[in-house]
């Protein structure tokens, strides 16, 4: 007999929840079981607009969804300032937790959330979608190839998108009481994660914010960058911004090879994604060109990356429910390292851009 799909309830009607509710529908082992808002009407409209199944429940409060024994897991796309309260309540109700990033405002809040998850035996995973794309595994195989790539030496990551005046005035990501981490939390999280991913999640020794961050009148970061340094002389930089053209670049450079891609967070196309590798290149005799040329690799997929994420999350939940397995600590460990670096960037800005030592 096939396993029943994991029943996921959505707490909040954020814009990103439209994408993730579709991903839950596409995942073969999950189903949208309900949506909660602070008003029944808003939740009902959200369900209708996003094609929820007829059996999906509508809740007029977050608490009523969390109290429902028919909900196995919760997707939490609320503003970051609300994560601490509602993530802990979700865990205490024994609901598994798929959370939007950044998970928390700082690592102390993050640790509170994970402690609640561990005490209640529930799985937690953050909503960083691109790490679940099959392309990501293929790229990792290249980075792990000592003959073609060698030893990692540097990583450069950039995520920016140009925001109109309405966004810069009204979006929750520029409000200090809602998403006080601004561009660093929203876009910088991806840059930090990509660097850690390339470095096999080895934390850097120090992090130094780059000078010249842009803040709005309320003190929320609209653009910033940082450099990361390891004891073995690896280096990395990232830049994130709400003020520059849409860019999602990632470059990892080894002793022998280079990995390049320009759409690392959201692929240009849903069902295929490419990347470029270069291994042991040189110049031709007259130094007018490269030999060999970089090679492009394309990965075709049947499920979009967000559905792959939900499938992985639901599989972990299913293993806990059916087999009594322990929650997988891989995902909260990766999230915590990302949060530690994010905290260090903020501390470095406060310290006049001096390097901050990472203490795990």
Give me some keywords for this one.
360 residues; alpha/beta; Dihydrodipicolinate Reductase, domain 2; 2 domains; ten-stranded mixed beta sheet; six-stranded parallel beta sheet; GFO_IDH_MocA-like_dom; nucleotide binding; NAD(P)-bd_dom_sf; Gfo/Idh/MocA-like_OxRdtase_N
Structural overview:
The protein has 360 residues and is of the alpha/beta class. Helices cover 34% and strands 25% of the residues. The chain has two domains: 6-129, Rossmann fold (3-Layer(aba) Sandwich), CATH 3.40.50.720; 130-305 and 339-357, 2-Layer Sandwich (Dihydrodipicolinate Reductase, domain 2), CATH 3.30.360. Strands 7, 8, 9, 10, 11, 12, 13, 14, 17 and 18 form a ten-stranded mixed β-sheet that branches. A hairpin with a 5-residue loop joins strand 10 (221-229) and strand 11. Helix 5 (107-119) runs antiparallel to helix 10 (330-350). The longest helix has 21 residues, at 330-350. The protein is globular, with a radius of gyration of 21 Å.
Could you list the spans in which at least 5 consecutive residues all have pLDDT below 50? none
Shape, per Cα inertia axes: globular
Number of domains in the coordinates?
2
Largest sheet: 10 strands, mixed
The overall pLDDT, averaged over residues, is 97
Domain GFO/IDH/MocA-like oxidoreductase: 137-259
Domain Gfo/Idh/MocA-like oxidoreductase N-terminal: 6-125
Family: Belongs to the Gfo/Idh/MocA family.
GO molecular function: nucleotide binding
């Amino acid at each position: 007999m096939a396993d029943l799909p994991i029943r996921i309830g959505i707490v909040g009607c954020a814009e990103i929840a439209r994408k993730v509710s579709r991903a839950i529908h596409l995942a073969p082992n999950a189903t949208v079981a309900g949506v909660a808002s602070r008003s029944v009407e808003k939740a009902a409209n959200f369900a209708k607009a996003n094609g929820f199944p007829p059996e999906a429940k509508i809740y007029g409060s977050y608490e009523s969804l969390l109290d429902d024994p028919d909900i196995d897991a919760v997707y939490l796309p609320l503003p970051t300032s609300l994560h601490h309260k509602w993530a802990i309540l979700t865990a205490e109700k024994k609901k598994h937790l798929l959370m939007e990033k950044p998970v928390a405002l700082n690592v102390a809040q993050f640790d509170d959330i994970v402690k609640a998850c561990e005490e209640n035996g529930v799985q937690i995973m953050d909503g960083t979608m691109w790490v679940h794309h099959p392309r990501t595994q293929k790229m990792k195989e290249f980075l792990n190839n000592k003959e073609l790539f060698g030893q990692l030496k540097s990583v450069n990551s950039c995520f920016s998108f140009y925001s109109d005046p309405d966004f810069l005035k009204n979006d929750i990501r520029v409000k200090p009481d809602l998403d006080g981490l601004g561009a660093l939390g929203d876009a910088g999280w991806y840059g930090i994660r990509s660097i850690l991913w390339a470095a096999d999640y080895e934390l850097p020794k120090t992090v130094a914010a780059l000078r010249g961050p842009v803040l709005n009148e309320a003190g929320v970061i609209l653009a910033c960058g940082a450099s990361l340094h390891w004891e073995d002389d690896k280096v990395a930089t990232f830049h994130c911004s709400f003020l520059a053209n849409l860019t999602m670049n990632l470059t990892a450079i080894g002793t022998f090879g280079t990995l390049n891609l320009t759409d690392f967070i959201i692929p240009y196309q849903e069902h295929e994604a490419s990347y470029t590798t270069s291994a042991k290149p040189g110049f031709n005799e007259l130094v007018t060109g490269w030999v060999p040329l970089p090679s492009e690799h394309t990965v075709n997929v049947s499920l979009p990356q967000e559905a792959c994420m939900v499938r992985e999350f639901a599989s972990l939940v299913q293993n806990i429910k059916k087999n009594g397995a322990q929650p997988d600590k891989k995902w909260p460990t990766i999230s915590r390292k990302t949060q530690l670096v994010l905290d260090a960037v903020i501390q470095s800005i406060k310290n006049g851009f001096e390097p901050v030592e990472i203490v795990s």
